[in-house]
Amino acid sequence: MSVRRARVVGWGGYLPPHVVTNDDLSRRIDTSDAWIVERTGIRQRHIASQGELTSDLATAAARRALDVAGMTAAQVDLIVLASTTPDETFPATATVVQRKLGMDGGAAFDIQAVCAGFVFALATADAFIRSNQCQAALVIGAETFSRLLDWNDRGTCVLFGDGAGAVVLRAEPGNGDGADRGVLSTHIHTDGRHHDMLYVNGGVSSTGTTGVVRMEGKDVFRHAVAKLADSVDEALAANGLGRGDIDWLVPHQANKRIIDATLRKLGLAEDKLVLTVDRHANTSAASVPLALADAAGDGRIRSGHLVLIEAIGGGLAWGSAAVRW
Ligand code: UT7
User: Both 94 and 192 in a single domain?
Assistant: First the structure.
């Protein structure tokens, strides 16, 4: 059966140049490089400078993705941007990116699913392509998450960083099976009962302030390990594939211990893993597309590879995608 597939034809990442190491943090708060590395695997994070906006990071990543695709912005008719840290309350940061890219057509909007945002954005763009509502989409995850942090809360401020990643999806015909190239499936979930585990204590209609991140780290950790492995299995089952078919696992980069536990649950070897948390820390919606750009950019992820993506974040919101590169 002939179907429309959303094939990944471009990828790109952008990290702000300013790097903050664990030692830098330990001079400002009661923490240490040893604690952060042992508990999270994080060694450094990139932090956006004053005046460097989410849309700037997103536009830089999008330009790189378009370059790899060999396409111009005018050939894209949809931008879906996942972010928790928009430039302004409105309009959508995606529309700012649209203007910065010089696009004068198509549609652009934001998606909010915190750290799972890229999976939700990919699911949305894939649905638009499959249903013939667009031909080519930029799917972006971009964050200046450092602006939501309480720099006196050592339990959260050491964990996050800023950055952006993007992929270009283009409509192509497929056979409707797991051998097709493109997005094979997406699965998204939320459970609002877990709000208090991970949230920002502010907002337009509640406090009129931006707020800062509040997290019960241990509870999030427990849910992450259980839900992420199940999510990968859900993606495989939907495509009649098995764990042995996975070429690359590209997980949300929150904590190396969560990633290791998920790998163990799935029985996957370390050499199937794309890991960036050591260099990028947790960049929320940007973490998965940055990791994709890292591994596709250096030639680890190649044409025909089966890439399994998973992520979880505040909401709780989580999900997975199976992509044949
Ligand atoms: O994208 C999804 C978002 N978030 C996550 O995925 C995060 C999930 N959770 C985690 O990654 C982990 O729970 C953390 C890394 C946040 C914390 O690790 P943990 O092993 O769960 O540590 P803990 O919170 O139980 O804290 C253990 C100790 C505490 O001290 P006491 O009470 O044992 O004396 C903390 O006060 O470590 C202390 N601690 C720190 N010490 C040095 C907490 N943060 C720090 C720190 N430096 N930065």
Answer: no
